[in-house]
Amino acid sequence: xDVTPIIDPLNDAxxxxxxxxxxxxxxxxxxxxxxxxxxxxxxxxxxxxxxxSPHGILAVTFTNKAAAEMRGRVEELLKMPVSNFWVGTFxxxxxxxxxxxxxxxxxxxxxxxxxxxxQLRLIKRIVRDMELDDSTWxxxxxxxxxxxEKDEGRRPDHIDTRNDQTRAMMVRIYRVYQDMCDQNGLVxxxxxxxxxxxxxxxxxxxxxxxxxxxxxxxxxxxxxxNSVQYAWLRVLAGQTGxxxxxxxxxxxxxxxxxxxxxxxFALKKxxxxxxxxxxxxxxxxxxxxxxxxxxIIAHNSERLGxxxxxxxxxxxxxxxxxxxxxxxxxxxxxARIEEWVNDGNLRAExxxxxxxxxQSRVFEEMLLAKQIPYRVYGGLRFFxxxxxxxxxxxxxxxxxxxxxxxxxxxxxxxxxxxGAKTVSVIREYASANAMSLWQxxxxxxxxxxxxxxxxxxxxxxxxxxxxxxxxxxLDLGEVVDHVIAHSGLLEHFRKDRxxxxxxxxxNLEELVNAAQSFDPDTAADDEDEMPPLASFLAHAxxxxxxxxxxxxxxxxxxxxxxxxxxxxxxxxxIGGMEEGxxxxxxxxxxxxxxxxxxxxxxxxxxxxxRKLYLSHAExxxxxxxxxxxxxxxxxxxxxxxxxxxxxxxIRVSRPAFDGGRARNSIRVKDSGGDVRLGQRVRHGKFxxxxxxxxxxxxxxxxxxVNFESAGTKWLVMSYANLELM
DNA sequence: AATATCTTGCAGTCG
DNA sequence: GCAAGATATT
Length: 725
Description:
Number of strands: 23
Shape: globular
Strand content: 15-25%
Oligomer: single chain
């Protein structure tokens, strides 16, 4: 057999990894050192040379993108379809296991996935139902707490709450939340992983079956595994499985969602015979860019230690631009992109990276103004759009009548005379009798509904049953089409004359397309197949789709630094290099947070192949308020000889701003005086009060005043005629 | 009960 | 600057 395509394109270190004996291997692979290639070639090596059946190989990644890429490349190399391999994300694989073994995992067969929006909604309701103050028990924090505990593998019973009232209450909410999910057959993201792990622990026979099957476990981005994922893999590997783990401690950027870099060290302890191989030769970037990256990451203390090198060219300096504000920054970036394109390059080769999603807006506006096509990754994804979730809620009810979240979402959408009052009666009767909203509704909440409300509810129930019957024989695309048409959703959005109504209708139509072309999972594995609708719904929750269509058009790529991991671009911009934004201020509270931000910066820099631009703005509008920040410390951690500063052109219209760093007063029209925060003022009608807040400037300036008798009001300065006191 | 308008909180990153 | 939720209006 000809193995040259498998081993020829590899350097020595890569080859050592790919051809290693069937023993545990840890590959520490720097950015751009060919780690995906190593994984792909290892799989090919196992199959072609070692004679391992694809059936016995499990490959795990974190993102759908990475999984898709791995599939594609293995197929290309082996020239055979990879349907026999299990290749997927942790969540995807966990989901597949749970579907197969729903009963053993203690789940109803029609269980649905709860995405984080739905999860938050549910928690909000629970906090309210428990009559807790949602400012002390902010649903977001509760969500954070629950997910954090689940990521560590802890159920409410495992959590020690002695001497900690706050924690005790959090655990109480966690309990109620979990009961709710169990009753409704809902599984959140963290739960998928935890249940999959518990499936091993509680069912030795099932575990044994998979242990015997998967003798080879390949794991990408090992530094991003959390405790549960690690335990899941560890148990699956057992004494007989061989683990092939690839990771880079310097690219560990998901600690906030439970990832533990330490898992890389733990591996070496658990498998004393583990072979460790370092990949340090970079094939992606110029040496200037690599120097910058090495120099940044050297400021971190906790590292396995590794230094990237290349035998390529120096390339251009890294350009640093100091903008006045975020618009100026965007203008600069877009102008550079225009030059790039005029030089005959593709737009798709350029990427604008930023720390937080909110930063994309200004770049989008500027690109739009210059009519440059672009594509935003992340942000609000297709399956997360409100109208899509509405449609999915109908579909979910068809699958699982007990899905309360979906029930509530569509019971009165489009409006059919079932108001808040009616729903709350149904809800109370349901919780008093430990039944689903659906069941409660079928009994007209135990007869507590008025005749009119009961009639409306009855019509809703009949509608769902009717939809279910009518679609029983249809295929997936037709089901979706039928449901959005006959549920009244499409009609509802059609007659809505809001500006977004049209795109909503288009999105619903797009959903039908998505369903039609949906391929029930590329890994059409042997035995039990999932019903298409269930499979499609899971796909919607797990993959969420992309922000916009038109993948194939040549367009500028916009994304967060996080979602850029694993990608590369000839031209890269990193915007918002400001203290407080990057490193983000909320990362500074916890130890290790800063180092993680620095690794994120390292990830960003190493995305660039040829040209890298960094920029920061002196002034940036956030939450509608101007902010001023220092240049990010990361800029000063770069070697000076790599950097070339670009001064703004004089012609740039410097925004009229009034000098002060922390501006806290505005000028009252024609009056010579300033209104400051805390200033006492008198109003002709409302009397005396104190200025709490203000916004805008000039004729549009408004102030918020707390009046002693009239309460707080927003007033337009130019009309209010405030008298300063 | 349905719709229009105002207020509030937000934006840290993913599956 | 936007979206969700709260409040006001019909």
